[in-house]
Design goal:
The chain has 155 residues and is α/β, with parallel strands linked by helices. It has three helices and six strands, in the order E-H-E-H-E-E-E-H-E. Strands 5-4-2-3-1-6 form a six-stranded mixed sheet. The relative contact order is 0.20.
Amino acid sequence: AAYDSSATVSHPRPAPAACGTHRQQIPNENFVHTLEHGAIAILFDPADVDQATVNQIEDLVGSYDERVVSGPYAGMETPVTVASWGEMMRLEAFDEEATREYIDTFEGEGPEDEPCPNRADDHFEVVPPAATPTPTPRNGRGNDGGGNGGGGNDS
């Protein structure tokens, strides 16, 4: 980071991410700044959750007016992670009751007590893996590739 003076008294920081639901992964710098404001993040690995799970997470976020954020975060150790400033709860599956308890315990506990209204409303959609195409014979005729029994004319 570049600083304005050699006796550094402050530094430029990225803005915190808006609280609410996010379609794309939040850059780490913005994400950490949001946690610093006392927000709770519910993150999910898009490769390890289904759309129903994402919908449950986003519904939970929508039930709060502030300081709760959700979004994808690829490559986590577990499919779902709930995070706050200096704390983390890793989940093999989304657990709404445990997540609400976590929010009640850690919301507002960051070093900066700043508001974070839930304004982001970008819903994430799980993209199903592409189907494996069924191979077709090269001759396009059907079964044995030799021209026999492919439904052609046997005159």
